[in-house]
Amino acid sequence: MYRNRVIPCLLLLDRGLVKTVKFRDPVYVGDPVNAVKIFNEKEVDELVILDISASRLNHEPDFDLVAEIAGECFMPICYGGGIKSLDHARRLFTLGVEKVALNYGAINNLSLVTEIATVYGSQSVVVGIDCRKALLGGHHVVALSATKDLKTKPSEWARKVQDAGAGEIFLNSVDRDGTMRGFDLSLIETVARAVSIPVIACGGAGSLADLAEPIQLASASAVSAGSLFVFHGRHRAVLINYPTHDAMNKFNL
Questions:
Q1: For residue range 57-91, what is the model confidence (pLDDT) as tens digits?
Q2: Which entry of 31, 64, 87, 130 is annotated as an active-site residue?
Q3: What is the rounded distance in angstroms from the CA atom of residue 47 to the CA atom of residue 10?
Q4: How many CA atoms lie within 13 A of 119 on its CB side?
């Protein structure tokens, strides 16, 4: 039976896993390889792994670490961070990554989306779109860990990356990141209805009920979360976890 994808999003910083709140104050939550081994046991659908400092510091992907992670991972991996060329993408695919996620790489060079999609297929290219509420209403696309405001509407940028060849959009709300207070459904629906490619919604999940809402109410094709899968309880104790299929079925996930 078809199930909607529920995808843990893991953030890399200095070769360790961290979790942020509103893209700030990263807290160390463990070793990425150990986390992958736990997610293997829990039969996770796929993983999104993002190096949150690579582009900001102008670093290329940490290929040695990606190789180590991919070597332990039994599920598909989407990797993002520091990808600036077709050769970077080629090396990542050779290491066992199924999809590459471009964020600032697409902003800085939209033709890179087309290059990778032409060689490897649109299904291999995800474009990450980070959004923040604008002062005068609506949302703007931001980049480089939300330090750069592009003054662009997310729906407009989503259409551009779709036209460039992206096969999927990873939509993240800076305002909801790490808060565990629910998704920004208005943002998600606006972007999802602007394009025909799948939109993965991220930012704000605090429960299974939260995970169901973007799919059931806002036209998202899949959902992703970070805090929900690395913390437990109101004191946010670190615990790598993932719901059982039976638990997700209760929410039609």
A1: 999 999 999 999 999 999 999 999 999 999 999 99
A2: 130
A3: 8
A4: 14
25 is annotated as an active-site residue = no
Give me the CATH number covering residue 26.
3.20.20.70
pLDDT digits (tens, 9 = 90+) for 82-99: 999 999 999 999 999 999
Closest CA to 170 of 116, 90, 99, 224: 224
> What's the Cα-to-Cα distance from 42 to each of 10, 28, 97, 167, 247, rounded to whole Å?
15, 22, 20, 27, 13
Helices and strands counted in the chain (H then E): 10, 14
Indicate the residue type of 136.
Answer: L
Domain that holds residue 216: 5-249
Secondary structure element (H or E) that encloses residue 142, with its range: strand 139-143
Instruction: Enter the pTM of the model.
Output: 0.97
Number of structural domains (the chain) is 1
Cβ pair 112, 105 in contact under 8 A: yes
Q: Considering just the CA atoms, what is the radius of gyration of the chain in Å?
A: 17
Beta bridge partners of 49: 10, 79
